[in-house]
């Protein structure tokens, strides 16, 4: 299973990368705004840290604008994946960019049918948002299971990025379902590594080590 890190904070990306956990990076306009830096500067810096797919999102709402933005983003680095919104215009842009050989990540997916449409339009990645569905009392993980079944039924090669991950259980469920990727906030990556019995075990070993004759 691949882990992407869901952040535009280059310090977090560096730290997670040093842990050997990062296969790719996803950003979005809100995360870029949170970084307080220029979009292109952040994306360029990320390409120097991680050698894997780096999603950068367009903000135009119509096809031609999306294509203009996408082509500029794709020039930054070979690893750039253009993130497009799950709208009819986004699908049209996805089809155009796929023909041009530019990789795409169709984002803001909330139903299995939206994922199927994105796959049909040629998306390289589809990003269903589990946390935001949970927030409105819907079963976020349920749609991951359904998308996986549909893609397997028909042999779609689009990779499923489980997005809007809020806790370690989301990652566990994504792994059990067999999703290709989870894009994970750094804080959740650290939570995944922690267990109170690990900490207690280290403490006991160190205490016992003091009794070993030196
Ligand atoms: C995915 O690519 C998005 O950046 C992200 O997972 C959205 O998560 P949120 O719902 O926590 O904002």
TrEMBL record:
The active site is at residue 83. The keyword Ribonucleoprotein does not apply. One of its GO terms (molecular function) is aldehyde-lyase activity. Pfam families: TAL_FSA (PF00923). Its EC number is 2.2.1.2. It catalyses: D-sedoheptulose 7-phosphate + D-glyceraldehyde 3-phosphate = D-erythrose 4-phosphate + beta-D-fructose 6-phosphate. Its main location: cytoplasm. Keywords: Cytoplasm, Pentose shunt, Schiff base, Transferase. This is Probable transaldolase. It comes from Geobacter pickeringii. The lineage of its organism: Bacteria, Pseudomonadati, Thermodesulfobacteriota, Desulfuromonadia, Geobacterales.
């Amino acid at each position: 299973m691949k882990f992407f890190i869901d952040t535009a904070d280059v310090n977090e990306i560096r730290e997670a990368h040093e842990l050997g956990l990062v296969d790719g990076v996803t950003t979005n306009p809100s995360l870029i705004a949170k970084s307080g830096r220029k979009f292109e500067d952040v994306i360029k810096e990320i390409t120097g840290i991680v050698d894997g797919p780096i999603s950068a999102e367009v903000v135009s709402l119509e096809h031609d604008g999306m294509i203009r933005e996408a082509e500029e983003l794709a020039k930054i680095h070979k690893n750039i994946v253009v993130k497009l919104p799950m709208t009819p215009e986004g699908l049209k842009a996805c089809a155009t960019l796929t023909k041009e050989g530019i990789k795409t990540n169709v984002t803001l997916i909330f139903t299995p049918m939206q994922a199927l449409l994105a796959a049909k339009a040629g998306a390289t990645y589809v990003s269903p948002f589990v946390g935001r569905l949970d927030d409105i009392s819907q079963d976020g993980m349920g749609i991951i299971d359904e998308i996986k079944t549909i893609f397997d039924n028909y042999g779609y090669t689009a990779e499923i990025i489980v997005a809007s991950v809020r806790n370690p259980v989301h990652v566990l469920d994504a792994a059990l379902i067999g999703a290709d990727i989870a894009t994970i906030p750094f804080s959740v990556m650290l939570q995944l590594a922690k267990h109170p019995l690990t900490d207690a075990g280290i403490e006991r070993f160190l205490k016992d080590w003091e009794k070993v004759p030196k």
